[in-house]
Amino acid sequence: MNIAAYIDHTILKPEITIADISKLCEEAIGAEFAAVCVPPYYVTNATAFCAGTEVKVTTVIGFPFGYQSIAAKIAEIEKAIADGADELDMVINIAALKNSDWDYLTQEITDCMVPVKQAGKIIKVIVESGILTMEELVKCCSLYGNYSIDFMKTSTGYAAVGATVEAVKTMRRLLPDTIEIKASGGIRSYAFAQELIDAGATRLGCSAGLQILNEAKAAE
């Protein structure tokens, strides 16, 4: 198994500089990772750094808490696409979810899908599984499984609990086969990465991609 092809090489800390983005992209190209995941501010830079390679540019929408208005998220999506992003990792409105406002969440995903699909881009819907009850996660799978989203993503990395094998297994069991799963948050070892892949994840968001890759090579 080529673990590199699963990894979104990620850096989302607020204090990062363009030099950090350049290094991230250089590492991703060298390792042949699936993508880099960068803040919206750096999408144009990452797009330039990764030009002519197979590495995709991913950015985040409504990050990290998801409680921006629908209009704000659409504006973020449109700007990210204009800047060159290939993939958009969007945090759902978790405040709406915790108030059981499923009508709002339905409207949000309906509206946000429009610019993504018009541009032929990839959308990954972040549900922050670590702070959901099992009932809430099941409802998320039911709702978003009805849309042509490309991935459901476990976490932002900002909640106390990140990716878990249980959450990935639940998603894989309940989502249509057409929807892939991205696990993220707290993935720092090859052993854990492998567990998540075995559970059904097809993409891994992590800042420890090089360490995981080195551990994978050592295990061969």
Structure commentary:
The model has no long low-confidence stretch (mean pLDDT 97). The chain has helices at 18-31, 43-49, 70-83, 94-98, 102-118, 134-144, 165-174, 190-199, 209-219; strands spanning 7-10, 35-38, 56-61, 87-91, 122-126, 151-153, 180-184, 203-206. It has nine helices and eight strands. α3 packs parallel to α5 and α6 (134-144) packs parallel to α7 (165-174). The longest helix is centred in the middle third of the chain and has 17 residues, at 102-118. With 220 residues, the protein is α/β, with parallel strands linked by helices. The protein starts with 6 loop residues before the first strand and ends with a helix. An eight-stranded parallel β-barrel has the order 1-2-3-4-5-6-7-8, surrounded by six helices. The chain has one domain (3-219): Alpha-Beta Barrel (TIM Barrel). The chain is globular and about 45 Å long. Helices cover 45% and strands 16% of the residues.
At a glance:
The chain is of the alpha/beta class.
> What percentage of residues falls in helices of 4 or more residues?
40-55%
Return the CATH class: Alpha Beta
Count of DSSP H/I helices: 9
Note the gap between the termini: 10 Å
What share of the residues does DSSP label as strand, in percent? 15-25%
Tertiary shape: globular
Number of domains: 1
CATH superfamily: Aldolase class I
Major sheet strand order:
1-2-3-4-5-6-7-8
Strand segment tally: 8
Major pleated sheet: 8 strands, parallel, barrel
* Class per helix and strand makeup: alpha/beta
Output mean pLDDT: 97
Radius of gyration: 16 Å
Low-confidence stretches: none
The CATH topology assignment is TIM Barrel
